[in-house]
Amino acid sequence: MPTLTSSSVDVRVFVYREGLLSAAGHDLELRAGAVTVELEPDVAAYRFHLARILLALEELKLALPHLEKALELNPTHAPTYVIWSVVLQQLGEMETAENLLRQGLKVLTDNADLLNQLSAVLAARGEGYAVSVRAPQ
User: Fold this and answer.
1) Which candidate, 116, 42, 111, 45, places its Cα nearest to that of 78?
2) Cβ distance 98 to 125 under 8 Å?
3) Which of 41, 66, 102, 125 is spaced 20 to 30 Å from 74 by Cα?
4) How many Å apart are CA 59 and CA 92, to the nearest integer?
5) Which of 103-107's residues contact partners 24+ apart within 8 Å by CB, and which partners?
6) Which segments of the chain have a pLDDT < 70?
């Protein structure tokens, strides 16, 4: 299999083609995702995708800057808040995860995914499922 580099064919095809990556495993997906971000660092979707790959590989700290940049580029993408909070939870940073989700709810008021994730974070902190239907003001 050829090595993927910036001079290779458009690697975005490799990253998003259905079936290819699941068959090839995370190694190809990681390399393709990294090259894609290198080629187009200001595309939030590419940053998010690379962070998810890193999460799957349990490279949590490496995922953080990509999630931060993805959210900076697209502050209305609820899945970025959710995945970032999962990474923070796994790193034991529960309060930071909670604060991130509350920040997201200020932007995406009443988003069900953010509310559910906030409930999970609060439950993990021993605070039950006490999340209001309305986002905090």
Assistant:
1) 111
2) yes
3) 125
4) 14
5) 104/78, 105/135, 105/136, 106/135, 106/136, 107/75, 107/76
6) 1-29, 33-34, 128-137
Phi then psi for residue 44, to 5 deg, are: -55, -40
pLDDT of residue 131: 53
What is the C-alpha separation between 105 and 13, in angstroms, rounded?
33
DSSP string, the chain: -PPP-TTSS-THHHHHSTTHHHHH-HHHHHHHHHHHHHH-TT-HHHHHHHHHHHHHTT-HHHHHHHHHHHHHH-TT-HHHHHHHHHHHHHTT-HHHHHHHHHHHHHHSTT-HHHHHHHHHHHHHTT-TT---SSPP-
Distance CA 116, CA 29 (A): 29
pTM: 0.73
Q: How many CA atoms lie within 13 A of 111 on its CB side?
A: 20
Distance CA 106, CA 109 (A): 6
